[in-house]
Amino acid sequence: MAATALVEGSSGNDAVAEGLLDLLRPAIQQLDLHVNSVRKSQVELREHIDGLATELCRINEHQKVALDLDPYVKKLLNARRRVVLVNNILQNAQERLRRLNHNVAKETARRKTILETSGVFASRSPSKP
């Protein structure tokens, strides 16, 4: 009797855990898609900053008027550095999300296998809570 209560209690906990996992999985996948999108846009931004910095240097070299563009080039390079830094942070966060999603899937499969082998699903009737 105590064993039955323990199995039902643990299956209830597993059902709650599985429900939470099912609830979190779409959010994790959506967040992963958004992180991919941001990373792509940051790569494009970095390329545009590089092109603009190169163009400013070229203009500065060919100017007949002594116009000092070096501070602007330095600002662009500083902005590029920050974009690269944010991109690295996003990449690390995305990798953590992937590992979390993988672990969630693995744990869900493991719990499902344990429940199926213990016969909890087969022995319970649909009318019982």
- Average pLDDT figure: 78
- Rg from alpha-carbon coordinates: 27 Å
Biggest β-sheet description: none
H/I helix tally: 3
Order of helices and strands: HHH
Distance between the termini: 17 Å
Q: Structural class of the secondary structure composition?
A: mainly alpha
Q: Helical amount among residues, as a percent range? A: over 70%
How many E strands?
0
The shape is: rod-shaped
Q: Percent of residues in beta strands?
A: under 5%
| Unreliable stretches covering 5 or more consecutive residues | 1-8
Write up what this structure looks like.
The model is unreliable at about 1-10 (pLDDT under 50). This protein has helices at about 1-60, 70-120, 120-125. It is an all-alpha fold. It contains three helices and no strands.
What attributes does this structure have?
129 residues, mainly alpha, 3 helices, disordered N terminus
Secondary-structure map:
Blueprint (H helix, E strand, L loop, with lengths): L1 H61 L7 H49 L1 H4 L6
Nutshell version of this structure?
This protein is an all-alpha fold.
